[in-house]
Structure to design on (159 residues):
């Protein structure tokens, strides 16, 4: 599939900046094809793995999201940074990144625990808490990755 180029090319941000945003920001919105062909978007936290270029997510094992991804693995994920204001302006400038790709289910338990630990470190450095969560919740964790096929980003001004 050929993905569209940005219409406002001057607003495009470099791929390196897109990766930085994916690594640093905590959450975004994953969109799938849901029931009846309707778009189904939900906020999720993520871990971007620079080694393989994939975005990782954890979840429960049942629900609309799981049903949708099993029916059609195509997905998009949108992440925004916190934004900034230029001095003397009210409008917020936001950098956003959209990743198009397909879902890959992760079944390797050791990989699930390893990625869960890395994801947890985005929120806390409390090793005792992380160890307990992985020990108690790890066996029931469903993990999946978004394998990017196209990544683009742009700077948008709210005005």
């Amino acid at each position: 599939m050929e993905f569209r180029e940005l219409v406002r090319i001057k607003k495009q941000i470099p791929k390196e900046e897109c990766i930085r945003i994916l690594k640093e920001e905590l959450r975004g919105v994953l969109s799938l094809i849901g029931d009846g062909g309707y778009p189904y978007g939900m906020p999720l936290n993520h871990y971007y793995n620079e080694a393989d270029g994939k975005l990782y997510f954890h979840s429960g094992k049942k629900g609309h999201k799981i049903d949708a991804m099993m029916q059609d693995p195509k997905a998009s994920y949108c992440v925004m940074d916190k934004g900034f204001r230029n001095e003397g302006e009210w409008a917020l400038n936001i950098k956003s990144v959209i990743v198009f790709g397909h879902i890959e289910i992760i079944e390797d338990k050791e990989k699930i625990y390893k990625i869960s630990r890395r994801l947890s470190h985005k929120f806390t450095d409390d090793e005792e808490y992380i160890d307990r969560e992985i020990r108690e919740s790890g066996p029931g964790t469903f993990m999946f990755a978004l394998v990017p096929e196209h990544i683009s980003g742009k700077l948008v001004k709210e005005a």
